[in-house]
Amino acid sequence: MAETTNQVLFFIGARCTTCKAMTPAVRAAADAYDSSVELVEVDVASNRELAKRHSVTSVPTFVAIHEGSVAGRAVGAQSRTGVAEVFAGAEAGHVRSVPLSTTERLLRLGAAAAVATIAFVAGQPLLLLIVAALVVFAVWDRKPLRKS
Q: Which residues pair with 72 in a beta bridge?
């Protein structure tokens, strides 16, 4: 790995279906930033030391490197906008957080409403705690891009 190159390390696993589903969007972003950011796909099973050096605990994980230093990272499935932001961060030297879309928030709130209905009909107060957690996750993104 060249120390002066802007790179995005895309840590994947052979059995990771999310990684496979995201690969076309990642490669499209890499094509868009072809002249300024290099995409490096890293299989964690065959590159354990590199994964350990970048504290990769789950896949997919993106690590944006700007001029040899880590500019930021993203863990888990990312939207096309999130993937593009990782590449932009590798180019610019910082990665901005991409908020949840309105659709994602509405889906999470819909799940909370469905569980609340089941809890009310079944008379299960424990399910109401689950509803509370779903509502929290509907408005709070638990896996934002972050500065490393």
A: 64
Residues spanned by the domain of 74: 7-92
**61-66 and 7-12 strand pairing:** antiparallel
Strand order of the sheet with strand 61-66? 38-43, 7-12, 61-66, 69-75
pLDDT digits over 38-78, tens only? Answer: 999 999 999 999 999 999 988 999 999 999 999 988 888 88
Is 29 found in the same domain as 86? yes
Query: Cα–Cα distance between 90 and 12 in angstroms, integer?
Result: 18
10 Å CB burial of residue 109 (0-12, 13-18, 19+) is: middle
